[in-house]
Amino acid sequence: MSFNNAISWFEIPATDLNRATKFYETIFDIQLIPMDTPNMKMRMFPLQDIMTGVGGAVVDSGGFYKPSATEGPLIYLNGNPDVQIVLNKIEKAGGQIVVPKTEISPDYGYMAVFLDTEGNRIALHSIPQQ
């Protein structure tokens, strides 16, 4: 067994999947990939290598998940090359910045926290380019 990443998959709750999809596609300049199952509707983040990468999706689970600005784990999404590039799009896309770009340390880079259109608290992380 190989252990390359501490996280292999994440799901971000959505009560309005179209609104949430538009938000994440806008702030990251990506296209989410539709993947629906009998129990939930998902819009997956693009993933280069399913065996070694970390995958995730915005999910309408029909009530299994509940968006929260204060409860549960805090997911850090990749904000490289600079979290500020993503932060600059948050409010125009309907979100709210909770913690502005903040240096963790010179070696570990920067972080920020925002609320998405569904009310989820989500973080960003970027590492300075050497």
DSSP helical segment count: 2
Output the strand order for the largest sheet: 1-4-3-2
Low-confidence stretches: none
Helix fraction, binned, reads: 10-25%
User: What global shape is seen?
Assistant: globular
Radius of gyration over alpha carbons?
Answer: 15 Å
What is the multimeric organization of the chains shown?
A: single chain
CATH homologous superfamily designation: 2,3-Dihydroxybiphenyl 1,2-Dioxygenase, domain 1
Compute the average pLDDT.
90
Order of helices and strands: EHEEEEHEEE
- What structural class results from the helix and strand content? alpha/beta
Task: State the end-to-end distance.
Answer: 32 Å
CATH class: Alpha Beta
Would you give the CATH topology?
2,3-Dihydroxybiphenyl 1,2-Dioxygenase, domain 1
Largest sheet: 4 strands, mixed
What would CATH call the architecture?
Roll
How big a fraction of the residues is strand? 35-45%
Our count of domains comes out at: 1
Count all strands and give the number: 8
